[in-house]
Design goal:
CATH class of the largest domain: Alpha Beta
CATH superfamily of the largest domain: NAD(P)-binding Rossmann-like Domain
Shape: globular
Radius of gyration: 24 Å
Number of strands: 14
Structural class: alpha/beta
CATH architecture of the largest domain: 3-Layer(aba) Sandwich
């Protein structure tokens, strides 16, 4: 639904209550007269710059990032254009407020800070009626549904309906970082209950007050949802977000070859990790196909990263089996190897012959990995012994501590650099400050999915892609790594700075779009200039004349 169509239907106070059309203090005199809003807004016409200055001033009065988050959500409810103008004016400043890390606290308190509904809440109590419910959504050209069941929110676990903050925030990043127009976005919570007793007993909890159903019952409900989306929103891409580990892997496998969908926790995390590895190898001089990688953590994120790395190694000439043999996983019960009887089906390809061990340092000394990747959610799991063991084996050990929030990071940047004598190539799932070691200033990078999924999303949006493939995430990873300058690599920075994030995403989206066209998955004609094609689709947070 375009602004023009909305405008033809709305005037007066109704127009002012529409955040897509509302311009607040920026209406011209001609617009106020024509739209019947004289006296309903101040008798002034302010520039967008003045509006931005007022927002920044008001944010300055807030004392916590949660208060700033609440303020910005309220701004979005009233003036969508101004909200995105604020975010896009300084992404480095505002992303930690509207998303990680503030979003974690917002989700924990979601029912308590709730003010206005956003998105859709699809309850399993309405199974059999999903089609009628989805048709209640006012926008008919939905391009992205970000859907969670709240089963595994960040590192916080089962938050049920409180997890709705995640799809809301994720879709805002599509627009703020890659310029995907916001009108086609639909955040969704698929409510099948929660096993979180504290939430079930919370009077302000907004979800079904019942335990989660059996896997069979849940999947039947998701099946109905997937099929109905194809009918109601036929060009829509479904973005799965923060499902429990085994469900995340199995649901992605269940639908990825049938509909346009992906799982950011699996594929987006894999893409940004692969980008970091590609950058690290520009420092070490090695090739991906020659690396040996050991994971701490073997859930959906670890498996997703391992699979994409193996797939990329196979692109470099290895067989998939040979590539998998160079990747090992270690979880709470020790090294994954064939004698283990507790493995999921998706872990089996990485169960290589080896003596059982529950000692991660022993595994390092035996397997001799060139890189360790932490996706364990266990803070401080990369001990000094771990980092020193990696440093004995490698001149430049690659150490990725990807768990978040900060207290879940497997080690800090300071620890990694100190214990490796400044030699580690380090990234984390959270942002750490620069570290001074000797005469070096080392710049730890953040392996944040925001580099990947908005760019992939823009490519999908512009091409109207029929499917989402691993090749798209591999190309996104390569594009990100290619935008890291040599002087940045010299200081250990493995990702480009976020300060120029829109340009980074546009260039990445153009390369991903080429893969969509080359794979014959686009629904539009091949453009002459791919980057110009992407730029033509970029949303700009600017007011337009309504008369």
């Amino acid at each position: 639904m375009t602004k023009d169509k909305n405008f033809r239907k709305k005037k007066g106070i109704e127009l002012l209550h529409d955040p897509v059309l509302n311009k607040s203090t920026a209406f011209t005199e001609a617009e106020r007269q024509a739209l019947g809003i004289v006296g309903l807004v101040p008798d002034v016409t302010e520039t967008e710059e003045m509006q931005l200055r007022r927002v920044l001033q008001q944010l300055g009065y807030k004392t916590t990032d949660l208060d700033r988050y609440i303020y910005l959500v309220n701004l979005l409810d009233n003036d969508e254009t101004l909200f995105y103008r604020v975010l896009m004016s300084d992404p480095v400043r505002f992303l930690p407020i509207v998303y990680d890390p503030t979003i974690g606290e917002a989700c924990l308190k979601f029912g308590h800070i709730f003010r206005k509904t956003r998105g859709m809440y699809l309850s399993i109590a309405h199974k059999g009626h999903v089609k009628e419910i989805l048709r209640n959504w006012p926008v008919k050209d939905v391009r992205f549904i970000c859907v969670t069941n709240g089963g595994r929110i960040l590192g916080l676990g089962d938050l049920g309906a409180n997890g709705m903050g995640i799809p809301i925030g994720k879709l805002q990043l599509y627009t703020a970082l890659a310029g995907v127009p916001p009108q086609g976005m639909l955040p969704m919570y698929l409510d099948a209950g929660t096993n979180n007793e504290a939430l079930l007993n919370d009077p302000f909890y907004l979800g079904l007050r019942q335990p989660r159903p059996s896997t069979e019952e849940l999947y039947a409900f998701v099946d109905e949802f997937i099929e109905v989306v194809q009918e109601v929103f036929p060009i829509c891409c479904i973005h799965f977000e923060d499902w429990t580990g085994s469900d995340a892997v199995h649901l992605l496998a269940r639908y990825r070859d049938r509909v346009c969908c992906y799982n950011d926790d699996i594929q987006g995390t894999a893409g940004i990790t692969l980008a970091g590895l590609i950058s690290a190898l520009k420092v070490t001089g090695g090739k991906l196909r020659d690396q040996h990688i050991l994971f701490l953590g073997a859930g959906s994120a670890g498996i997703g990263i391992a699979n994409l790395i193996a797939f990329t190694m196979a692109h470099e000439g290895l067989s998939l089996t040979a590539a998998q043999s160079q990747i090992s996983l270690f979880d709470v019960n020790g090294l994954i190897e064939p004698s283990r009887k507790d493995l999921f089906d998706f872990q089996q390809p990485y169960a290589h012959p080896h003596a059982p061990t529950k000692d991660f340092v022993v595994a390092i000394e035996s397997l001799k990995p060139t890189a360790i990747i932490g996706v364990s959610t266990v803070g401080k799991a990369f001990t000094q012994d771990v980092v020193e063991a990696m440093s004995r084996i490698n001149d430049r050990p690659i150490i990725f501590a990807l768990s978040n929030p900060t207290d879940h990071a497997e080690c800090t940047a300071q620890q990694a650099y100190n214990w490796s004598k400044g030699c580690a190539l380090y990234v984390a799932g959270v942002q750490f400050q620069p570290v001074h070691y000797g005469d070096q200033t080392l710049l730890p990078g953040q392996a944040n999915n925001l580099y990947i999924f908005p760019a992939v999303g823009m490519a999908i949006y512009a091409t109207k892609a029929k499917r989402v493939t691993d090749e798209m995430f591999i190309e996104a990873a390569r594009a990100i790594a290619d935008q890291v300058r040599p002087d940045q690599l010299k200081h250990g920075l493995l990702f480009p700075p976020q300060s120029n994030i829109l340009e980074i995403e546009i260039k990445t989206a153009a390369r991903v779009a080429k893969i969509v066209f080359d794979s014959d998955l686009a629904r539009v004609e091949h453009p002459g200039n791919m980057e110009a094609f992407i730029r033509d689709h970029v949303y700009k947070p600017e007011y337009h004349s309504l008369v």
